[in-house]
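User: Design a sequence. Structure:
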């Protein structure tokens, strides 16, 4: 009796391919023929493949989204990517320039393309390759917007993002839960390492020989003092000699400088004019009593004539 069990156990049946795997000659996007500008491919992590690839993928049990592993067998370098379109010429695929640099591929080099399934990303860490990345106001928002054109990330790759007509390169330092992850429709935490070549500003430690803040303020006020100082002018002698007439003013100290008191009740939009900043003298109680007891024309007069003497 004929048994189907032995048919399916045949090694040829077990080795029947269930994944996409082929080789293409790769070129940069600038070599893509056509009137349309395809600079959008350079801004992401997806490639352009020929129509025959779509036909083969549709015959296989391929899970979506379609993700691929690219391998350069000559340099033993690999990365992962997604597919954007199937409009390339047969036997050719087009890659972003940064992806060709990671794979150490030249124009027309051979690349192995295999379909893969990747885990969904939960965490990734990036290291900017230039301190210029710190000039961006909100780097996480910029990176999140740029990663919308990517399908997956591979640890060790140096990706390129375009912002304000400037290209920033970032190295993928770490990805979780695997070294290659899918970032399509995922909730991923993003972290940054210090940019390559970044140096933290040095903090100056104050020495004991350096003047303190109060001394520094006093010296600065003394330098700014341009008011009147008594006996600081130079004199002239009648005989024309200049010996012993040079002024020697005493240096100002911190106690000689009168600093103003700030107005703690100041309010925005209100100007206060202080008419008299000198305090009024206080009156004593005795002075007030003397003013109250004063009676006009109550004094005693003196006569020029002495009493008892006739004129």
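Assistant: Done.
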């Amino acid at each position: 009796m004929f048994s189907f069990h032995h048919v399916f156990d045949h090694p040829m049946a077990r080795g029947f391919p269930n994944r996409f795997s082929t080789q293409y000659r790769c070129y940069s996007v600038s070599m893509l023929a056509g009137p349309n500008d395809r600079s959008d491919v350079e801004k992401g992590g997806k490639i352009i493949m020929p129509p025959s690839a779509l036909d083969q993928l549709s015959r296989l049990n391929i899970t979506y989204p379609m993700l691929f592993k690219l391998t350069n067998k000559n340099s033993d370098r690999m990365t992962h990517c997604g597919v954007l379109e199937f409009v390339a010429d047969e036997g050719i695929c087009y890659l972003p320039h940064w992806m060709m640099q990671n794979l150490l591929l030249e124009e027309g080099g051979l690349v192995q393309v295999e379909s893969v399934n990747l885990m969904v990303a939960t965490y990734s860490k990036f290291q900017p390759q230039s301190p210029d990345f710190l000039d961006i106001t909100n780097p996480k928002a910029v990176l999140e917007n740029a990663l919308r054109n990517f399908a997956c990330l591979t640890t060790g790759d140096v990706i390129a993002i375009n912002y304000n007509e400037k290209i920033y390169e970032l190295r993928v330092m770490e990805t979780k839960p695997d070294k290659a992850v899918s970032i399509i429709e995922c909730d991923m935490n993003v972290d940054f390492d210090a940019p390559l070549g970044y140096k933290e500003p040095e903090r100056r430690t104050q020495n004991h020989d350096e003047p303190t803040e109060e001394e520094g303020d006093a010296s600065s006020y003394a330098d700014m003092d341009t008011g009147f100082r008594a006996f600081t002018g130079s004199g002239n002698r009648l005989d024309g000699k200049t010996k012993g007439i040079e002024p020697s003013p005493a240096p100002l100290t911190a106690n000689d400088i009168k600093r103003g008191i700030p107005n703690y009740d100041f309010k925005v939009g209100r100007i206060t004019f202080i008419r008299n900043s000198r305090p009024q003298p206080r009156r004593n109680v005795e002075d007030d009593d003397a003013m109250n007891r004063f009676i006009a024309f109550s004094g005693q007069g003196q006569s020029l004539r002495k009493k008892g003497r006739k004129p």
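The helical segments are 4-8, 11-14, 51-59, 97-103, 139-146, 213-224, 285-293. The longest strand covers residues 166-176.
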